[in-house]
Amino acid sequence: MRRVAVVVLEGAKPLDVGIPAQVFTQRKSMPYTVDVCGVRPGLIAGGDGLSYHVEHGLDALERADLIFVPGTRNPDRDPPPLELTQALRTAHARGARLAAISTGAFALAETGLLDGKRATTHWHYSRILAERYPEVQVDERVLFVDEGSVLTSAGAASGIDLCLHILRKEAGMAIANHAARRLVAAPYRSGGQAQYLPQGVPAPHGERFTQTREWALRHLAEPLGIAQLAAHARVSSRTFSRRFLDETGYSPMQWIMRARVDRARELLEETNLGVDEIAATVGLGSATNLRRHFRAVLGTTPTDYRSTFSRER
Length: 313
Known about the structure:
Order of helices and strands: EHEEEEHEHEHEEEHHHHHHHHH
Strand order of the largest sheet: 2-1-5-6-10-9
Number of helices: 13
Number of strands: 10
C-alpha cells in the first residue's frame, strides 16, 4: 500500500481537496491509503463557505509517498506557512512525489523545487505565478505538467486528469481505467491539452467528437485513418483534424496510437495473451511494431511492463 497525504490550507478549494481524496481513497481496487491533514490538527476554514476538520498535522507528510497540495482561494495574498514549505522540502528529499492542484502550485513554487522546471496552474493565476517565481517555467496552456518528482495541474477538473495520470504510471492502466469509470471521467486526456477551448470553436454539447472517439476505441483492430474518423464525425478531414487537436491535445493519429498502446497495456495486465496476439488485437500488426511503439511511448518493453503490472504477480 502506498500512502497519500492531502494538505488542507486556509481557504482551500473544496474540489481541489476532494479530488485526490476520492480518487486515491482506500478500497479493494486501489493500493493506496489517504490521510487528509493540515499544518496542525483541528478545524480549518476553507473556501466557498466550507470548513474542514482534520485529524492529522504535518507529521502525515513524514510517511507519505505522494503528497497533494490543493489550491487556495487567494494564493497571491496568502503565502504558505513556513512549516509547510520545510515539510514539503523534507518529504521531497526522502523521495516523496509532490503534486499541486490548481493554485497549490504557489505552495510548491515557494519550496524552490519548481525552479528550472515547467509548471502550470489555473490560467487566471498563471501570470502572477510567473512574476512571483521567475525561475519557474510557467505554461498556462496545458492541463498538467509531470516533472517526475514534482507535478502541477490547472483548474480543479484537471486535477482528475493528473490523478489518473499518476495512477497509470504507478498502478497500471487497468486500475486507472477502473478509477475513471468509478468517477465517470474521461479515461485519458493529454496533459498538453489546452485549459480552455479558443473562442469561435463550436462545441455546444461539450466535446464534439466524443462519439467518434468511443467508436474508434471499439474498432482499434481495424485500419483507422483520418478519412474514416472524419466520415464517422460527418465533417471534413481538415475540420476534424483541427478540432480534434483542440479537444484532446493530440492529432487524430497520435491519439489513435496512444489508444492502441493503452489497450495493449490493459491486455498485458489482465490476460495471458502473447505479444503477437495483443499487437493484432489492438491494430498494431506485429510484435515488432508493438515493441517499437511501447518503447517510444513508455520507455520499456511489453514483457517488462507485464512483469511490473500483471495482476497475477
